[in-house]
Design goal:
Rossmann fold, 25% strand, seven-stranded parallel β-sheet, alpha/beta, globular, 4 helices
């Protein structure tokens, strides 16, 4: 088991497809993983996702895809996702965990950072590796966008950040890439049955 992997948290659409923001996140992660010479993994929680969809993550840079399949994971509920991913992080000990700065990522990552007692930098527009230390440099606008702040988390692991969507282009997939899809056994004791997904309501409000 490699304790120094870089992880990206993938997102799934209502149509059971990997969202493009997940591929953008892998492009970010791939640059970091190559710099540190460590594996890059995508973490996917959902239900009945096709192998074709999971393989897209490998084509976009993932060396491993950790896949947790359960009916209670089909829709994003922060309690369930946070419980499962926290358990995985404790087990596998990645050094960096990244998510998109979407509604899902902005909800999930603060939960995880508090539970894991580590830092979180939100809305990053760039990520780099510090040459001397190998630490993640988390770069984001500050003070109304007038300066760019560079943030490090030297004392805690994993280093965690959300990345602003569309802050970099998505490279084309490489269908010659190979990797591993690793099914995960879901511990049902980690699923919170106090919250249930009932459905989506389309906004009916008319513009004035």
């Amino acid at each position: 088991m490699n304790k120094n992997e870089i992880w990206t948290v993938s997102e799934i659409s209502q149509q059971q497809e990997i969202k493009p923001v997940s591929f953008e996140l892998l492009a970010r992660g791939k640059t970091l993983a190559e710099k540190l010479k460590v594996p890059l993994a995508a973490v996917v929680l959902g239900h009945n996702l096709s192998e074709k969809e999971l393989t897209k993550l490998i084509y976009h840079g993932a060396d491993k895809v950790y896949w947790a399949d359960h009916k209670d994971l089909q829709y994003f509920l922060v309690e369930n996702y946070s419980n499962l991913i926290q358990d995985l992080i404790i087990k596998y000990q990645p050094q960096i965990v990244l998510a998109a700065a979407t509604t899902q990522g902005r909800t999930l990552m603060p939960h995880l950072s508090v539970r894991l007692n580590t830092g979180l930098t939100a809305d990053c527009t760039d990520l780099q590796i510090e040459q001397e230390t190998g630490l993640l440099l988390q770069i984001r606008p500050a003070i109304g966008g007038n300066i760019m702040a560079m943030i490090k988390t030297p004392a805690k692991k994993p280093q965690m950040a959300t990345v602003r969507p569309k802050s970099m282009p998505i490279p084309p997939p490489d269908e010659n890439r190979t990797g591993s899809i690793i099914p995960l056994k879901v511990d049902e004791s980690l699923l919170d049955n106090r919250v249930e997904h009932l459905g989506y309501l389309k906004n009916q409000q008319q513009e004035v």
